[in-house]
Amino acid sequence: MYKLYYLPDACSLASQVVLRKLEQDFELVNIQDINNFAALNPVATVPVLLDEDLTLREGAAVIIYLLEKHKSHMLPSEPMARSVAIRDIMFANATMHPAYSRLFFIANTSATVEAKQAMFDSAAQSITALWAVVEDQLQDQAFLGGNKVSAADIMLTVYSRWAASFPVNITLGGKTSQMIEAVLAQPSFQQSLDAERQQAAA
Asked: Which residues does 190 contact at the CB level (< 8 Å), separation at least 6?
């Protein structure tokens, strides 16, 4: 059985959703409840996935590993479709995720309120531009993976929820908003949110 180390509402939520969509058994461990997480991951970030003797970190690596091991439409076997799926996962992980992470960095700076808001506004503009790329990809399909939810859709939906914690105005296109709403409504996503809430309440 897998063991997934997470933080509530962090990017590790995407790995949990993927595990549930793949119908895999796993133990969910909040890193706030353990003493020496750095022994598992020297950079102390989530997610970390344990699969017997294998320890994996970095969200994209965890998700691709799971999709390689458990065949799914989320990682097609046809070379071109597979390359597109991996490209979208990497866009989410290496482009959109850092753009949203900038909001957390700004919130923790010691700048004046006015300077901090200017930084927030700049970051929001950059994020909005990235969502425009997503909107363009969704013009002829419901999800980045076509007519079924992809791993990248799940990752992007997780990140989209973070904006509510900051004084930013991020604009999403109509197709993008529909995609996010559809992903949020997935049983695997709701079950993952519920699992994190239950652990927090325990």
From this structure: 184
3-state secondary structure of 20: helix
Note the pLDDT tens digit of each residue in 122-146: 999 999 999 999 999 999 999 998 9
In the chain the beta strands, taken as DSSP E runs, fall at: 2-6, 26-30, 48-51, 54-57
DSSP 48: E
Rounded Cα distance, 153 and 164, in Å? 19
pTM above 0.90, yes or no: yes
Domains of the chain: residue spans and CATH: 2-72+187-201 (3.40.30.10), 79-184 (1.20.1050.10)
User: Which one-letter DSSP state was computed for residue 9?
Assistant: T
Helix 59-69 vs helix 12-21: crossing angle, to nearest 10: 10
